[in-house]
Amino acid sequence: MNRRPLLWFAVCFVAGCASGAKLSGAGAVLAAGGVAVAALALVLSGRLTRKLAAVCVVGFVLAAGERMWADARNVTGLLDVLRAAEAQGSDAAIAAQASGTIASVVEIDGDRASFELAVDAASVAGFGSLRQLGGERMLVQLRLEEQLQQEVAAAWRRGDVVGVKGQLAQPAGPANRGGFDYRRYLSSQKIHWLLQATGTGAIDVAPGPPWTAAALLGRVDTVRAWLAARLSNMYPGMQAGYMQGLVLGITDDLDPSLMQQFARLGLTHILAISGLHVAVFLYALGLILRLCRMTRERLLLTLVFAVPFYVLLSGASPSVVRAGVMGMLGLLAARMHKLKDGLHILAAAAVIMLALNPFYLENVSFQLSFIVTLGLILGVPPVRRAMPHWKRGETLLDLIAVSVVAQAVSFPVSIYYFNQFHLLSLPANLLLVPFISFIIMPLGGAALFIHIAWPTGGKLLAWASVYANDWTFWLVDWLARADLFRTIWATPPLWWIAAWYGALALLFRSLPVSELSAAREQGPDSEHSNLAGGHENGELETQPLYELSAIHRKGGITVPSKSSDGFAGFSYASAAKALLFLRSFFSAVLIMLALLLFAYHPDLFDRDGRVHVLDIGQGDAIYVRTPEGKHLLIDGGGTVSFRKAGEEWRARKDPFEVGKKVIAPLLMKRGVQQIDLLVVSHLDSDHIRGLKAVMDSIPVKGLLWNGSVKHSPDAEELLAYAVRHEIPMYRAEAGQEWEMGKNTSLNVLWPPAVNQTEGSSISNMEIKELEEQNEASVVLYLTMKNYTFLLTGDIGFETEERLLALMDENPAFYAACCAKVDVLKVAHHGSRYSTAANWLERWQPLSAAISAGATNSYGHPHGDVLGRLKAAGTEVRRTDQDGEIEYRAVSGRLQARTMNKGN
């Protein structure tokens, strides 16, 4: 440990920052005490010097204190306004005016423009005089009224001084358990308010001072936009946005479907400017400078000054900042002939970035960038030494080693945040990463550079990569469509992630060294010792980062190791040591297999039944998990939009879609690997628009619907999708009973039967056309562990009366399945013309769940319905106030909890 003081200081610094972020003040003090005790124990054991122990403890305390201090300062200057808004509810909006400086790129998407505003002063209606806010950031969201206003907003620049008249609103918090927390996300960027305005007339713009940081960054934005326009001029269609992302890190014009395919295959890191891009940039620039016969010292110094320029030009995301800091440190060390290994450089970069901005710790890009880089530094050498030595295949083996380690290291973070892993991700990375990184990206950069001086030459060079891009898109599409290889994982607990990395570290340390590899490596006095066997004093040896060393040398990864005796085709220091490492190897493999099994089936032994009424705004989506582990989804919500002819310009490139943004991610986070039965209560858009995205993300084994069609794009697309993907479709008819397991059954109460059997093929059905769908909603009676739920779609008084009459006509059937209910899903979002008094009298529900949007324009739920429920003695929960509603059937009791109010 004493050989790596900077590394252990960085470990303690990061741990301190995490403690300050996640623990209370008392908890952070206890954590610091624990670190001090551990450091003292290491000092007494002789593994740590007193000086290093003191430095590590101080680093932990400083990082924890800095983070807690940053959190204490990360509050709005309008605390009284915030309290008033919280008292009014999540949809509160308060009239306000603010003046300040545009502090980000102005983003325009359809009829929306947005930018960050560093607010100098603001006045809020009803809260006294002008407030000085000293640069507090707000997110301005502007709704454009006409197409010409897009051009007006596009002329605004970072650094401009503006005044905005609008309404203050809080960012939305999570409405469902595990859902995206927009409020927390903006808070990590020190933004606490949305300032919403309509029309460019609500904003007064004037040029700001020319030499402020914001104005200088505004010039960088202008250069980036100018370069992006050059790429758009050279590349056709969706290739323009793709090349902008690849070369400049601009993803605004990247096709959403292409981005989704790259994400499925774990290839989005190609589009995120990171260490590989920095390395290629420095390598290319280094070659040019060498051609100019520049001395080594001047070349390295030039590269150091070039890095910040490239970081700014590529967007300054955390991953590229990390790579830039590491690149500059490595180049400076090389210039001073003190090039340290990658661990020291990585440690220094982590400390610098967190010291400058402790909120980087929660950034996914920051986490992935550092974790993967650390994994490559520690994991590639032992993996490479365990592989055979092929003279003509060194580069291929190097690539395989890097790809395997990167996949293993990034896997826990990927499933924690994205809940999916494609089994073809490894071959996709092996094929496409070198091809894109070393051919397409340099071609794009060179074409852009040449196009500036010689447009025709730039286009000719770009033409060479157009066909290669077409091939890339075809291959990505073909691989992404292989749904058999796509796996879905529930979000694992943090202890699981720690256990995975512990087992992975044990695996790396216990990997054998192939005899061929050992035979070609140096003897006992080699500078680098065998990581598989460990250093004599237990220290890990690493080598310089490949992305830095690539500037100075060519060829494969060279990792010398101690010579040793052969054992079963591999090399170890002794037979006893070989046995010890083999035990460690198989222990690590078994631990990782057990962890994989747990992560893939975390609820394997969970026998509780659950019904979740999801908060998706104005619409319905109900997720059911049975005690037997079956998954049902009833409806999939959808945002209903009304657009007039000539308003196509309002459409966004990637509009908010509740299935894609809310339902599918939630189900995947909860480990839903397939939907055993998808129930479509009826074909109105507010119940089905989100279902296509769900079916794209999660396999569906069967679809139950009301047996009708409706002439609407959403309905036609849904049914066509089911037929095209050969999803079994069943018409719902009163009298059907679906056995979903030993403790779960589903009875269809409505619509009435039309003499078709449950399993009738859609090709044999008589499909009726029905434009008014509400009264044809599928009504279900769910029994789970002797608890009952009545799910009613959007039926109204008419169907309630007809169903009650039908129940009177067929008492034998309905008496057998349909007694009183424990939970009623109130029909039609609580419409005034549903949930009649006699309906409630028949079912006598103990609890009622209402799914309605917080800002819906229909007045749902209506006061009359709430009054009838109150008169019936029914407890009411509603998504517009309570968020997600969950009912859990456990042995002997039915539990209920909501997102906002708990149990």
Automatic annotation (TrEMBL):
Spell out the GO cellular component terms annotated for this protein, sorted alphabetically and separated by semicolons: plasma membrane
SUPFAM superfamilies assigned to the protein according to its UniProt record, in alphabetical order: Metallo-hydrolase/oxidoreductase (SSF56281)
- The answer to whether UniProt assigns keyword Phosphoprotein to this entry is no
Catalytic activity as recorded in UniProt:
3',5'-cyclic CMP + H2O = CMP + H(+); 3',5'-cyclic UMP + H2O = UMP + H(+)
Q: Which residues cross the membrane?
A: 27-44, 267-288, 300-321, 342-360, 366-383, 395-418, 430-453, 460-481, 493-511, 580-600
CDD domains assigned: ComA-like_MBL-fold
Which UniProt keywords are present, listed alphabetically? Answer: Cell membrane, Membrane, Signal, Transmembrane, Transmembrane helix
- Report domain Metallo-beta-lactamase positions: 618-828
| Chain segments annotated as coiled-coil in the UniProt record | none
Where would one find the signal peptide in this protein? 1-20
Q: Which domain of life is it from?
A: Bacteria
What membrane topology is annotated for this entry?
Multi-pass membrane protein
Does the record bear Iron in its keywords? no
One Pfam family assigned to this protein is: Competence
InterPro entries named among the record's database cross-references: ComA-like_MBL (IPR035681), ComEC_N (IPR004477), Competence_DNA_uptake (IPR052159), DUF4131 (IPR025405), Metallo-B-lactamas (IPR001279), RibonucZ/Hydroxyglut_hydro (IPR036866)
Q: Where in the cell is it found?
A: Cell membrane
Protein purpose = Counteracts the endogenous Pycsar antiviral defense system. Phosphodiesterase that enables metal-dependent hydrolysis of host cyclic nucleotide Pycsar defense signals such as cCMP and cUMP.
Q: Which protein, by its recorded name, is this? A: Metallo-beta-lactamase domain-containing protein
* Source organism: Paenibacillus sp. BIHB 4019
Q: What is the lineage of its organism?
A: Bacteria, Bacillati, Bacillota, Bacilli, Bacillales
